[in-house]
Design goal:
The chain is built from twelve helices and nine strands. It is an alpha/beta fold. It has two domains: about 10-225, Spore Coat Polysaccharide Biosynthesis Protein SpsA, Chain A; about 230-330. α9 runs parallel beside α12. The longest helix has 25 residues, at about 235-255. It is globular and about 60 Å long.
């Protein structure tokens, strides 16, 4: 691996938000250091870790000149990524999670794609690894989506969303840093699943993107994952507010860009899909007081009108009408 000089910016800035990554951090760092890259900088943002991963990060920085650590009070993954973006120097930037692992050729492959076609974004496929059993599963099955030619961002996002398997995760790709800075695009602090609005707005501005169906990233599914935690009561009420906010942000993005790019049915559909996630959570909530609080939030945020305005396709309209009927029946007061 060739490292960059101060005069020569690196090809890639790897921004790693880290909070209590535990023993998984060692495997992640070894897979990152094994990348076959021409030039790279690794920026670990220690987001107030209280376990051994903070000390491990500083040991890696002390022994590898292209690794640096930013220490900050715990503020969440968005603030950590934004802190890394503020100092990144690469032509491209990426955001892997500190408890996953990478194929040795992941970033060299994506950079080759980016350089060959002057891409704003290059993305790959990934696999879920279930930690209990070791079982693996492709994130996007190849029968749903194969490698693409160069597309513009809205066309790619529409194609990916149409698979019903795509996840808005920033760790599957590399992104042109100059475009992110031109847009002044930041991750929303305090928002769970902040990748969803971030990637959507970025893709509205991307002129050239390619996807390879090669699996180059391993995403470990464990109980610590935010999306896998079981929530009831007040915690569930607070969590569903994130999805209501995401639905609003996606709707606002569509409105903002509708005169500049084609807003496809898939881009409308994802607004209603995120809001319907909150409806599904109602059925699993055992506490009546919490259910009523979630229903109150749905109406207070104008979400029913937002869902109706963006619903597309017979199947989604069926789900929407079914859930709106249930919510009206369950609503008290």
């Amino acid at each position: 691996m060739m490292l960059h000089s101060e005069a020569q910016p690196p090809s890639l800035s790897v921004i790693v938000p880290m909070y209590n990554a535990g023993a998984s951090f060692h495997a992640f760092m070894e897979s990152l250091l094994a990348q076959r890259l021409q030039s790279v900088e690794i920026i670990i943002v220690n987001d107030g870790s209280t376990d051994e991963s903070a000390e491990m990060a500083h040991r890696y920085a002390a022994s590898h000149s292209h690794v640096q650590v930013i220490d900050q009070p715990n503020g969440g993954v968005s603030r950590a990524r934004n802190a890394g973006l503020a100092v990144a120097r690469g032509r491209y930037v990426t955001f892997p999670d500190a408890d996953d692992t990478l194929s040795p050729g992941m970033y060299s492959k994506l950079l080759e794609m980016a350089d060959a076609d002057d891409l704003d974004v290059a993305q790959c496929n990934a696999e879920r690894v279930f930690t209990g059993s070791g079982r693996t599963k492709p994130l996007i099955p190849t029968d749903r989506l194969r490698s693409t030619d160069v597309l513009d961002g809205p066309a790619w996002l529409s194609k990916a969303l149409a698979t019903n398997r795509y996840l808005h995760v920033v760790w599957m790709g590399i992104y042109r840093l100059s475009l992110i800075r031109k847009l002044n695009l930041q991750f929303e602090p305090g928002l769970h699943h902040q990748d969803i609005p971030w990637t959507t707005e970025l893709m509205m501005n991307v002129k050239r993107v390619r996807y390879t169906d090669e699996i180059l990233y391993s995403y470990y599914v464990h109980d610590r994952s935010i999306s896998n935690q079981k929530r009831t009561g007040e915690k569930n009420v607070a969590y569903q507010r994130h999805y209501l906010k995401i639905a609003r942000m996606l709707d606002e993005i569509n409105q903002r860009y509708r005169g500049k790019v084609k807003i496809s049915p898939e881009l409308h559909r994802q607004v209603t899909k995120e809001a319907l996630t909150v409806c599904h959570a109602l059925r699993r909530e055992p506490e009546e007081e919490a259910r009523q609080a979630i229903i109150a939030d749905i109406f207070a945020t104008g979400t029913p009108r937002r869902m109706v305005r963006n619903a597309r396709g017979i199947r989604q309209w069926y789900q929407l009408l079914l859930w709106l009927g249930r919510i009206w029946r369950w609503r008290k007061g």
